[in-house]
Amino acid sequence: MNKIYRLAIGAILLGITVESHASLVSNDLLGSGDGLLTYDSDTKLSWLDLTATVGQSYNQIMAGFGGYTSNQGFRYATENEVAELFSDAGVSQTSWVWGYWNYNNPGYVANSTLVSLLGITYPFDGLSTYSIGLTGSNTFGTQDSHDYAMVGYNNHADYIASLAIGTLENSTNSSNVGSFLVKDVSNVPIPGAAWLFGSVLVGLVSFSRRKALVPAHTKE
């Protein structure tokens, strides 16, 4: 029985390890299945989909559009926090990198996965696809404005990402730009592998007790 315990626990712990490396998880905000949040287990930040704020200016968001900053505890992410999100997603800051139609290349996979989580704000003629959002930083120094960051890819498996590709005035609306809004999460969801670990342990203990009650068979 000890061998069974060791094998089972080893396999489950391996599962927990794999789970911990998958740091970005889609969660719901308003209702089951809406997928409006992306939780980063490394930073303990929950990111609102860019599509929830696309077309709204910085001023409109700060004035309480959707209740995100006024009632739901969201705030603008700093450029450094967006950089950490990109890093945790495996996205590198880079100008266009050619993928040569190799849809398995790591850069394309990372970028397209993050865009899928954050939501598409700018589909360009069905060729290039982007997630673009305002940050809470102003590295360009332009008065009353904020930087916007982007991550994208195209149908050739090329990919691109930038933390400060440009700036928008605080009163400017863009139909292709959302806002990188985050909130700190205190109650961290229990990973599925950890739940499985506990369940299997209970099962093994139960099995061990039942086995102890069964007489051992002997050869005739």
UniProtKB/TrEMBL annotation:
Keywords: Signal. Residues 1-22 form the signal peptide. This is PEP-CTERM protein-sorting domain-containing protein. It comes from Methylomonas lenta. The lineage of its organism: Bacteria, Pseudomonadati, Pseudomonadota, Gammaproteobacteria, Methylococcales.
